[in-house]
Structure formats: structure tokens, C-alpha cells
Amino acid sequence: MHAGGSARLRTSTLVVLALSLTVAATGCSNDSGQGGQVTVGIALPTRAQTRWINEGESMVKLFKDQGYATDLQYAADSVDKQVDQVEDMIARGDKVLIIGAVDGFELGDALQKAARAGVKVIAYDRLLLGSSNVDYYASFNNYRVGQLQAKYIIDKLGLKKGGNAGPYNIELFAGDANDNNVQGFFKGAMDTLYEYIKDGQLVVKSDQTRLSQVTIFKWDGEVAAETMETRLKDYYKGSSTVDAVLAPNDGIARGVIKALKGKGYGTSAKPMPIITGQDAEIESVREIIKGDQSMTVYKDTRKLAAVAAKMAEDLITNKRPEVNDTETNDNGNKIVPAYLLDPVGVDKSNYKKVLVESGYIKAADLN
Ligand code: BGC
User: Fold this and answer.
1) Of 19, 229, 240, 267, which residue is 20 to 30 A from 138 by alpha carbon distance?
2) Of residues 182, 312, 175, the one with CA closest to residue 255
3) pLDDT given for residue 14 in this prediction
4) Does any ligand 1 atom lie closer than 6 A to the CB of residue 181?
């Protein structure tokens, strides 16, 4: 899909080269952004979570309002597809790329081509790894996401440091192994949960506590449902029940809920465990209102889209983008200057204020 833009440069590699030489020589972009001549490439990983669809749409709109054209592509969670899409964007002469990577490690060659062509690169939501050709990073504090999920579990179970509550049974899940954010989410959660597991207030009956044991391929809710079914069958025989589930996002939470319901959870005799989530997806907020999911972590993706769009515009107009973190996002090759937004924990008690009053979700969509 190519949104907007009339006189876009449809180019051969030669033109790209000529263009980048002009940029290098003059130190400024080829036009002022008037007339839709500058195109921003937006490469997003998937449409499987609604957030990416909304963010794609809102960035396209923000750029259009500023007079830029956009080139928005979704990779259907396929690394190969995304590499092709990004290379095509470079070949077409897009000026800045905003990339939400399927696999942060796999775009190195494409990023090198971008650098050679003078194309600036913004890592979107997920850090691009192992390459020096990443200019900026726009995301949320991912460690904090995991911390919010874990703290919620600890609070709701009433655990205290050094206490002797429980023991409560917990099962752990993480997102796709190739998504760099997963490390941050899981570390934030485990740094918080670990001491309670160690002192026996929390028990992981499946014994699956390492990240490599609990990742869910492509963040797929169906895979999560099957995984949870297997764990329930193998480790929760007789009267033993699950008290809490660390689910890293809403899609996985819904898969877990499906498996639990299949085993008779969700009644007063066998209540739902505490189940976390992330993304504040409408379907999951409905689950929270019903009481099947306990919480979600809200990330205002409208703000993230706006931060990335502003960064791109600054790069096009040779301004230095604003950042608030120049230390923590080491991609293995460089520390990528970043702007990180704060995530917010949401449950039944505050969803109206946080999600509805802010206009993120319409009240009517929750009925
Ligand atoms: C994002 C989450 C999202 C997940 C699956 C992560 O990188 O930060 O918001 O739920 O990918 O798309």
C-alpha cells in the first residue's frame, strides 16, 4: 500500500545513489516536504495484534498532515517478507524508515544498504540488533511492562518479602523468541518474581522458568492455549490448581483463558487465576470487565506513533530528534539513542479512567 504522494521518486539504484550524494553534499534533504515528495517507509511486523494496524494508520495520517508520502508494509510475521519490503523501500528512495522488526537480528544487510543510500532508520517498538546502522529507537520501557505484570500478581496474592504466604502456583509465559522486547518483558517480570519463587511463596509446578522454555512462537494465542492445556494436563492433576499466570500480552492471555475454561476454571469452586496481559486490546478489556483476565499493560500507541513520526520529520528536516534515554538500548553494536514512553497497568478499577476517558477505547466498544 502506498498512501498519498504524487511525485514520488520511483527509482533505480542509480537514482538512489545520486540522491544520497546530493543529500551528503548539501547536508539537506531533496525537498522541504512540500508536495508529498518525500516518502517515509513504515515496515511493521504483523497485523495479528490490532495495535500495529492502528499505529500504521495513525502514522500514515500524521505524515500526510505534514505533507509527506508513506509506504506502509506489514510482514505477516515473516522475516523474509520484511527483508524484501525494507529493501524495496530503500530501492524506491524512501527517505526515512520506521521499522518494527519481525526479528531484530535479521535486517543487518538491509540496514547497511539503507546507510549506504543515506536513508535514516528508526527502530519502532522493537530494537534493531547487531547493526550500527540504526539511528534512533522509539519504544516503551519494556522492562517496566514485565515489572507491572509481576507486581500485580504479587499484590493480588498478598505476598510480602520474607513472608510465608501461599504457596501459590504460578505458570510463566513469554512472547516470540526473536522479538527483542521479550527479553525486557521477561526480565522485568522475573527480577520481581524470583525472590518469591526462591522462598517458596510461589511455585512453578511445570518447572518451566527459563525464557527459552516459555516463549510462544509468533506470540500466537492458539499456541499459548495448547501449551497451557499441556501444562494443566501434566502438572495440575487432582485438586491442584493454578493461582496466577504471567501472560506477556493480551493475545497470549486469551489463549491461556481458553485452556483454563476448557478445564473448568472460571466458577466459584474453581476461580480463574490472576492473569496478566499487555496492549489493552478491546477483547481483553472485555475479559477484564467480565473478570476472566485480571489486568493488562496499556501502552498508549498513539503517543508512540507520534514520537516516531516526529523523529522521522526531524531527520528529514535535519533537526536532532528528542530522546530521553542514551544509555540503556545497547543493540550489540551501539547504544541507540531512544525515546521511551511509560506503560501503565490497567485493571477493572481504572480502565474507565485510563482507557475510556483518554479516548483510547470507546465505551461503546466494551459492551
Ligand atoms: C510488542 C507488544 C505486542 C507483541 C506482539 C511486542 O514486541 O511490544 O505490544 O503485543 O510484540 O505483537
Assistant:
1) 19
2) 175
3) 35
4) yes
Atom of ligand 1 lying closest to residue 139 CA:
8
Mean pLDDT of all residues belonging to the chain: 91
Ligand 1 contact, 287 CB (< 6 A): no
Exposure class string for 63-75: b at 16+ Cβ within 10 A, else e: beebbbbbbbbbb
Residue 174, amino acid: A
Of all atoms in ligand 1, which is nearest to the CA of residue 100?
A: 7
Architecture of domain 5-134+300-342: 3-Layer(aba) Sandwich (3.40)
Does 175 contact ligand 1 (Cβ within 6 A)?
A: yes
249 lines ligand 1 (CB under 6 A): yes
Per CATH, the number for 142-298 is 3.40.50.2300
251 C-alpha vs ligand 1 centroid, how far in Å?
10
The pLDDT tens digits of the residues spanning 109-164 come to: 999 999 999 999 999 999 999 999 999 999 999 999 999 999 999 999 999 999 99
> What is the DSSP code string of 201-238?
SEE-TT---SHHHHB-GGG-HHHHHHHHHHHHHHH--T
Please tell me the residue having the least CA distance from ligand 1 atom 12. Answer: 49
pLDDT of 37 reads 77
Residue 1 has pLDDT above 90, yes or no: no
Ligand 1 atom closest to Cα of residue 248: 10
Closest ligand 1 atom to 125 CA: 8
User: Is residue 301 in contact with ligand 1, taking CB distance under 6 Å?
Assistant: no
For a pLDDT cut of 90, what percent of the chain falls above it? 89
- What residues does each domain of the chain span? 5-134+300-342, 142-298
pLDDT of residue 4: 36
Average pLDDT of span 182-192: 98
Does this model's pTM top 0.85?
A: yes
